[in-house]
Specification:
alpha+beta; Rossmann fold; nine-stranded antiparallel β-sheet; four-stranded parallel β-sheet; 17 strands; about 35% strand; globular
Length: about 300
C-alpha cells in the first residue's frame, strides 16, 4: 500500500474542491493508499507542505486552481534541487481558468481527473524558475507562464469571492478597471547571443498552449517538453496602425509579421530594466525585480496525464 499526500485549496473556483472532497477521497481510496489530507489556509501553505513532507510519499495529488498548482510545483522543484525523492504529481483542476490542465488534457470533472491519476500515464513537461538580480537568487518556479506588463496582475488581484460568483468574467471586469494604468516598461532582453531593447507593454515566457483560457496567444509551435520556452514581447505601439497590427498578429498567430512583436524560443533568458517591474508566475505574484533570469528545466517532474496524451 503506497502513501499519498492530498493537498487542496478549499476556496479555489467556486469552492469546488471543498464540495467534492468526499467524492475525491473515496475515488482515490480505491487504490488503498495510505492517505494524508491537507487543506490550504493561505498563500504559501501548499508549497511549504510539499517541500517539507512530500518526499515521504509516492504520489502527491493537488486540487485547486493554477495558483495552488504553482505552489505544488514550486515545492516539488525545491525538493528535487535538494536531492530528495520527488513523488509523481496528480492534478485535479478546481480553479476558474485551469490553463495547465487544458495543456495536458486533464479533465475538469473531478471523477474523470482522478481516473487519469489512477489509470493514466506519467508525462514529464518542462518547468521554469525565476531568479532575482545579478546573484540569481531563486524567487520561485512556474508550471507554464512567467510574465510582466499589461494585465498580468489581474489574476492574483481579482478578489476570490468575485471569481467564485462571476467566473472568467471577473478577470475581464478587473482588466477593464486597469485600462488607464497601462504603461510600457523600458527593458533589455538577452538570450543566446541576441539582445533586444525597447519600451514593452507586455512580456511572457511560456510553456503553454493557452493563457487565461484563450488558445493561440503563445505562438504556433508550442512543445511542452522540448527544453525551450516560447517568449513573446509586445512593444509599445506609437500609433493606431501599429496597435491594429499587433492585434491582427495575435489573432492570426503570425507573431513575426509586425515589428512590434518579438517571438523566439530559448532555454534561458534575462530581463533587465532600470526600474523594478512586477512579475507574475502562473497567475500569482512573482515579486518585483529590476533584473531576472529565467531557466527552463526540461522534463523536470512527472505528472499523470491521459494515456493518449503521454503517447504523443
Amino acid at each position: 500500500m503506497g502513501r499519498l499526500l492530498f493537498v487542496y485549496n478549499p476556496n479555489a473556483g467556486k469552492g469546488q474542491a471543498r464540495k467534492n472532497l468526499s467524492v475525491m477521497l473515496e475515488a482515490l481510496g480505491e487504490k488503498q493508499y495510505e492517505m494524508v489530507v491537507f487543506p490550504t489556509r493561505g498563500q504559501g501553505d501548499a508549497a511549504r507542505k510539499v517541500q517539507e513532507e512530500a518526499s515521504d510519499y509516492e504520489l502527491l495529488v493537488c486540487s485547486g486552481g493554477d495558483g495552488t498548482l504553482n505552489e505544488a510545483v514550486d515545492g516539488l522543484m525545491r525538493l528535487k534541487e535538494e536531492g530528495k525523492p520527488v513523488p509523481v504529481l496528480g492534478y485535479i483542476p478546481a480553479g476558474t481558468v485551469n490553463d495547465f490542465a487544458a495543456n495536458l488534457k486533464i479533465p475538469k470533472i473531478p471523477e474523470e481527473a482522478i481516473q487519469v491519476i489512477l489509470d493514466g500515464a506519467s508525462f514529464a513537461p518542462d518547468f521554469g524558475s525565476l531568479h532575482d538580480g545579478n546573484q540569481e537568487k531563486l524567487t520561485g518556479h512556474f508550471a507554464y507562464i512567467a510574465g510582466f506588463g499589461a494585465f498580468t496582475e489581474v489574476s492574483y488581484e481579482t478578489p476570490q469571492n468575485m471569481k467564485n460568483v462571476l467566473g472568467r468574467a471577473a478577470y475581464f471586469l478587473e482588466g477593464v478597471k486597469r485600462l488607464t494604468d497601462i504603461r510600457p516598461y523600458s527593458v533589455r532582453v538577452m538570450y543566446g547571443e541576441e539582445t533586444i531593447e525597447g519600451e514593452f507593454l507586455y512580456g511572457m515566457v511560456t510553456n503553454t498552449k493557452s493563457v487565461g483560457g484563450f488558445k493561440g496567444l503563445t505562438g504556433p509551435e508550442v512543445c511542452l517538453d522540448d527544453g525551450k520556452f516560447d517568449v513573446i514581447l509586445i512593444r509599445h505601439p506609437s500609433n493606431a496602425i501599429e496597435l491594429q497590427n499587433i492585434i491582427n498578429s495575435l489573432l492570426t498567430r503570425e507573431l513575426n509579421h509586425t515589428s512590434n512583436i518579438f517571438y523566439f524560443h530559448t532555454e534561458r533568458v534575462v530581463f533587465e530594466s532600470k526600474e523594478n517591474i512586477p512579475w507574475v508566475l502562473d497567475g500569482e505574484s512573482g515579486g518585483v525585480h529590476h533584473r531576472v533570469t529565467i531557466y527552463n528545466h526540461q522534463r523536470a517532474l512527472q505528472i499523470m496525464v491521459p494515456r493518449e496524451e503521454a503517447a504523443r
